[in-house]
Amino acid sequence: MPGRLAQGFEPEELLRLFNARAGDLEGAGPRWNSAPTHRLMAVRKDPQSGENALDLLRWGLVPHFAKDMKGGASLINARSETVSSTAPFRDAWAKKRRCLIPLKGYYEWRGEKGAKQPLAIALASKEPMALAGLWENWKDKESGLWLRTFTLLTCEPNSAIAEFHHRMPVIVLAEHQTGWLAGEDAAGLLKPIASKLLDIRPVGTAVNKVGNEGEELWNRISQSTSIFGRETI
C-alpha cells in the first residue's frame, strides 16, 4: 500500500510510451519522492475524444460530492475487493474513470519503528511500472475551479511484499494496460503480480523526508552501509 512514489520521467517520454496527447502538464517533470497531495502524471481516456491523455492529477481522491477537498489526503488508496461499494470510490468505479500512474517504482519500509530500512520496489524488467488508479472530478463551489484527483487500487500482497506489508498496489503489466484504460473487465487484473517480476532493493534513508528530491534517492545502497535504517559513513 504505497505512500511514496518515484515518477522519474519527462512528460515527452510518457506521451510517447502511452501514445497519449498532452493535457494539463504545467509544471510536470521527474519526481523521485512523491507523497499524497502531490500532483503526478497520469494516463487516462479522455471522456470526449476517447484518446489517451496525459495529465497532472492530485494524489488523494476527492469524491464529487465532497464539501471540501480536505478528505482527499486520506483517500490515497482503495481496496480493490470493496472499491465498487465504498462510497468515496464507487461512482468513479462504476463510470470506469480508470487511470494508470506510470512510475519507476514505489517505496516501502521494512523493520521496526525507529529502525526502518527504506526499500525501492520496481519491475525486474526495468520497464516502467504502471499502477492502477481511479480518477475523479471535484468542483470548488467558492472559486468555481475544477480539481482532478486520483486514488491507487490495492490488493493482497505477493510472497515477496508480504514479508514487510499486508497490501500492495495493483500493477498493470504492459499487455493489459490498453484494456484497463478502455474499461474492460478488470476481475483478472485486481490481484498481485508474481514476486519474480519485482526487484526489491534497499535505498538510503534520505527518502524518509518528503522534502528531499532527486534521482539519487532511487539508487541502491549496500546493506552494509545501512544499520537499523540509519546510513553510516
From TrEMBL:
Q: What is its EC number?
A: 3.4.-.-
Q: Does the keyword ATP-binding apply?
A: no
* Superkingdom field: Bacteria
Q: What keywords tag this UniProt record?
A: Covalent protein-DNA linkage, DNA damage, DNA-binding, Hydrolase, Lyase, Protease
Q: Which GO terms describe its biological process?
A: protein-DNA covalent cross-linking repair; proteolysis
A Pfam family in this protein?
SRAP
Recorded hits in InterPro entries, A to Z, give: SRAP (IPR003738), SRAP-like (IPR036590)
Segments spanning the bilayer are none
**Membership in a protein family:** Belongs to the SOS response-associated peptidase family.
The protein, known as = Abasic site processing protein
* Protein species of origin: Terrihabitans soli
Q: What lineage is on file?
A: Bacteria, Pseudomonadati, Pseudomonadota, Alphaproteobacteria, Hyphomicrobiales
